[in-house]
Design a protein that fits this description.
alpha+beta; Alpha-Beta Plaits; 2 domains; signal; two-stranded antiparallel sheet; single chain; eight-stranded antiparallel barrel; 10 strands; disordered N terminus
Length: 224
């Protein structure tokens, strides 16, 4: 019993230390089309792939998801991806010279700070991003206890192939206290299934965390 208690305490301390020492450096980027001319996009796509490939080779792009869209009724895949940077301005600066951006054929619709990547797995199935954020007025020690349980659960789900990526970040609460938060990419049939999978987490079961679900698409194996 003592050994188990000691192990749990050490796990919680390790996870808390890992979370707070990490600097938020990875950002999820969502794109949208900024044109109704499919031919312009097709003409620039080869150059776009080559330029984006350089960001992959350099290790700046951490994850990439492809989802279906269309222009003028023509199928045209779009991507969501994770890229490192100092802040949102730095991320946008890295993207500004890519062909589709220079020609204003796409634009960034959303940038979300994710923290630092710590798990990875890339099966070719649908992925849904799930973001957990703490509710206010939860005791700090109780947060640490629950976080220790849930981060072990993330590792187990990753080993089981249900979680394909996980990022650690921090959240500042209204009282000024900072606590680790996490973002995971689930393999799921749909958003409802992803939300159901999130109920495996202690923070969700106890009503401590808010859950936000976003469709990501098919995760792509990055070749550097």
């Amino acid at each position: 019993m003592k050994n188990n208690l000691k192990k749990n305490i050490l796990t919680t301390l390790f996870v808390s230390s890992l979370s707070f020492s990490a600097v938020a450096a990875d950002f999820g980027v969502e794109l949208m089309w900024n044109t109704s001319d499919a031919n312009q996009v097709l003409d620039s796509m080869a150059d776009q792939r080559a330029a984006f490939g350089e960001l992959i080779k350099s290790g700046e792009v951490k994850d990439m998801f492809v989802f279906n869209s269309s222009i003028e009724g023509k199928p045209m895949a779009l991507i969501r991806f994770v890229i490192d940077g100092e802040d949102q301005a730095d991320v946008e600066n890295k993207l500004k010279d890519l062909p589709l951006y220079k020609k204003e054929l796409v634009k960034v619709s959303h940038v979300q700070p994710l923290g630092n990547k710590w798990l990875d797995n890339t099966p070719a199935m649908q992925n849904y991003g799930v973001t957990f954020t703490w509710r206010e007025d939860i005791d700090a020690l109780e947060m640490d206890r629950v976080l220790g349980i849930d981060l072990q659960r993330v590792i187990s789900l990753n080993q089981a192939g249900l979680v394909t990526s996980s990022y650690l970040n921090t959240q500042k609460l209204a009282n000024g206290i900072e606590r680790p938060v996490y973002h995971v990419a689930f393999l799921a049939k749909d958003a409802a299934h992803a939300r159901e999978l999130s109920k495996q987490f202690e923070a969700v079961n106890l009503g401590y965390a808010n859950v936000d679900v976003q469709y990501l698409g098919h995760k792509v194996q990055l070749v550097k």
